[in-house]
Specification:
mainly alpha, 3 helices, 76% helix
Length: 135
């Protein structure tokens, strides 16, 4: 049994090899461009994320401060009105007692959240750094 020699051309002609090399280089170059673009997009997203988180935290701080002030003010108003009720009872002044009890009832009916009913105005107020919150 004799072995037969078969000539096999692996790369083909020189032109085919050059085209293959060019295709590999072009694919690698495209890959590097896409990788750079995606890296830039990731940096943009990270910057947007940081900005958005900072804005949410600032809005949260404003809201918490408003609510704390609002509830403090309500507590002070209730405390004041109940002191007046006690004084009216001590003086036997039913007219004043009725007036203060009515004021307490009206204050209890009102919600510190009533200003937040219109969310668009609240959002605009939160976005406006010049907005002055009155409590």
């Amino acid at each position: 049994m004799t072995a037969k020699k078969v000539h096999v051309e692996v790369l083909g002609t020189g032109a085919d090899a050059l085209q293959s090399l060019h295709a590999i280089i072009e694919a690698y170059t495209d890959y590097k461009k896409v990788a750079q673009e995606e890296q830039t997009k990731r940096r943009d997203i990270e910057a947007w994320e940081k900005t958005t988180i900072a804005q949410v935290q600032a809005n949260r701080d404003v809201l918490i401060k408003y609510l704390e002030s609002s509830f403090d003010e309500r507590a002070n108003n209730f405390r004041f009105l109940f002191e007046k009720v006690d004084q009216a009872i001590a003086q036997g002044d039913n007219k004043q007692l009725s007036l203060f009890l009515h004021s307490i009832t009206e204050l209890a009916k009102s919600s510190p959240f009533k200003d937040f009913a219109d969310l668009t105005s609240v959002r605009a107020a939160l976005d406006n750094p010049q907005h002055e919150w009155t409590i």
